[in-house]
Amino acid sequence: MSVMHGPSKWASLIREEHVHGSLYVDPAIFEAELEKIWYRTWVYVGHASEVPQPNDFVMKSIGPQAVIMTRDSAGRIHLLLNRCSHRGNQLCLTRKGNARSFTCPYHGWSFANDGQLRAVPYPSGYEGVDKGGLGLGRVPRIDSYKGFVFGSFAAQGPSLEQHLGAAREAIDRLVANSPEGEIEITAGFLKHRVKSNWKFLFENETDGYHPQFVHASIFSVADSRIGGLYGAKSTAVTRYLGDGHSENDLRPEFRRMGNRLAWFGTFAEKFPDYVSRMQGAYGADKADQIMIDGTPHIMVFPNLFIAEIQIFVLQAVAVDDTVQHVTALQFKGAPELNRRMRQQTMGSVGSAGFLLADDAEMYERTQRGVQSRDPEWLFLGRGKHRERVDEQGFLVGDVTDEVASRGFWKHYRSLMDAE
Amino acid sequence: MMNAIAEIDETLLREVTRFIFREARLQDDHAYDAWEALWADDGIYWVPANGEGGDPEREMSLIYDNRSRIALRIKQFQTGKRHTQMPRSRLRRIVSNVEILARDADSVRVTANAVVYESNARGETVWPSRNEYLLRRVDGELRMALKKVVLVNNEQPLYTLSFLI
Question: How confident is the model at residue A355 (pLDDT cuts 50, 70, 90)?
């Protein structure tokens, strides 16, 4: 008897220009995503600058899993799971701090900040037990790029370098805006919860079609140039970078304007110290180009959104529960710029933000709306007819086109189809 | 003499309480202009994240508005395109435990507890907080120089908070 292999389950839900509504609302699909995506691929966890000193730690997450990011006394970073290896008690309930060891309050087991079991009370009760096998659970693979720390629950698989692919160049572009070539995460996080599926958030981050409508209120009353960047006449592009990553590349518009720091809605003349430090670090021509081009707007699969002046870390908690952890980016060696980054971030994002409160409203309404029985499909065909390949070989479209969503779903399908 | 001071305190407490109850009603009713008129010219509207919030100049807050950003917040509501408030949240809040912490010639520092019940398309959300006010007398009327809202659950992920808390 021969077995005919029909199209996979995922092929029946994901077409070239359409995706099925159940992908956002079916709890069984969410469980499958945890296994095939969140607990397999590289996921952004935190930034090295959040644990600057030996023995610093900070609580992070990979999807619903709590992760303690520690720096041990030798300076190495670890991603440990928040579960005592004895009877499963939560080990750490503090958001951040400095500790050489974590002691479980239940029976007093003590673990070094590299995860090794260090001591157990009344040790005679464990005669003959191998303590080496009783360390904390850990994210088996950890790697970082320019201070961005990622973890993968898969013991084997593509390297972080392979996973990031073309996204590395965007991270290079980001850190170049610091005269010291480094960003820091030091301003604390807002945690904005939405009753929506994580993929609605992911797809929105480089959707250049929505800003004019979702953010019409703030564009009409604030002195904001964002609106025009996403208009029908914009020369900006949406680029699918492969491996699930995508960006809205606004540089064509900023280069057309040709003004340093226009990307940040301000003028170089207001930040003379920053300008001179940049020119000192990179030379005048390159520094001016960096200050004209600005920072990237890129969604790094599956959960790191670098949005010009802030980062969002998406945490998928349940099929209809997602948390956006968001904070201002801080450029090392640029204090006057950093103050403005914090103030603009606080105004625009988080639960009360001028921008994000309206995005969140759309996420939640879409989550409810997509449960209607008809039509069953979402249509993602915008700009398909004018997709083109740029000089570097990437698929690009006009900034309002749905190139990024189509790329995301292609990548998603490849991960879900994998054994 | 003691009685006279106690009487002044009682009179001030009554006035402060009336002011805070009125502010609560204006917020519940989305009476944006009347609410904005309660602010002093240098008012700060602060809703910290992560506990007491540390230094708002260094760390993220949910809201850290100076007077011009308060005005922008109100203008955004009035565009009719602030989607998260279209339709508006239905709100009622209870404010209690009003106490005067300190006072001088022209200002008074006040604390109060509040619980806001919000109903919108997502469902029902309860927002409990400790509120702190610095009220200043301007042309004979009390005005808010600072309103700080410390949400009890601000260490946890929070749903959208787009009404006036």
Answer: very high
- Provide ipTM, 2 decimals: 0.96
pLDDT above 90 covers a percentage of chain A that reads 95
Domain count along chain A: 2
Identify the CA nearest to A199 among candidates A67, A348, A367, A381.
A367
Determine the pLDDT at residue B4: 76
Return the pLDDT at A5: 59
CATH number of residue A56's parent domain: 2.102.10.10
Q: Is residue A20 included in any domain, yes or no? A: no
Checking if the pLDDT of B11 tops 70, the result is yes
CA distance to A334, B78, B163, per residue, from A217 (Å): 31, 9, 15
Selection from A245, A45, A65, A57 nearest residue A145 by Cα: A45
At A210, list the tokens.
């929505």
> Do A216 and B157 lie within an 8 Å CB cutoff?
no
Do residues A74 and A196 both lie within one domain?
A: no
pLDDT value at A375 more than 80:
yes
Mean pLDDT for A3-10 is 70
The structural domain count of chain B equals: 1
**Which chain A residues touch B if contact means CB-CB below 8 Å?**
95, 186-195, 214, 216-218, 220-222, 323, 326-328, 339, 342-343, 345-347, 350-352, 354, 357-358, 360-362, 364-365, 368
**Which SS3 state, helix, strand or coil, does residue A161 take?**
helix
| For residues B53-80, average pLDDT | 96
Q: In chain A, what residues touch B156 (CB-CB under 8 Å)?
A: 191
Q: Give B-chain residues touching A188 at CB under 8 angstroms.
A: 49-50, 54, 59-60
Instruction: Identify whether residues A186 and A335 lie together within a single domain.
Output: yes
For the cut 80, the answer to whether the pLDDT of residue A125 exceeds it is yes
Q: Report whether A120 contacts A53 (CB < 8 A).
A: no
Q: Which of A184, A193, A187 is nearest to A356 (CA)?
A: A193
Q: Determine which of B160, B161, B162 to mutate to test the interface with A (most A C-beta atoms within 10 Å).
A: B160
Report d(CA B53, CA B45) in Å as an integer.
Answer: 13
Share of chain A above pLDDT 70, in %: 98
- Cβ A310 vs Cβ A329: under 8 Å: yes
